[in-house]
Design goal:
Elements lengths: L3 H12 L20 H15 L5 H5 L4 H10 L6
Length: 80
């Protein structure tokens, strides 16, 4: 998983939510079908797919899926 599109495919596959790269920058409450349990399931899926641990505390600070992608796939240094 390298790109935001790869990440969003994981979101669709694991959560059943189709989100475009444009929508990824919207806040979670603007995403149709999103709920807080989705974030936990997504973290688990990212860990399975990348083989890396994800900091739950950092991800809970994310405002949208784009930030989750940057924190979990690109690495925490990707968000200034």
């Amino acid at each position: 998983m390298e790109t935001i599109d790869d990440f969003l495919l994981l979101v669709e596959t694991e959560l059943g939510l189709r989100v475009t790269s444009r929508e990824a920058a919207r806040s979670f409450d603007e995403l149709t079908g999103w709920d807080s349990m989705n974030l936990l399931a997504l973290i688990a899926a990212v860990e399975r797919n990348t083989g890396r641990s994800v900091s739950l505390a950092r991800v809970l600070e994310a405002a949208n899926l784009e930030e989750v992608y940057l924190l979990t796939v690109r690495g925490a240094e990707a968000i200034g």
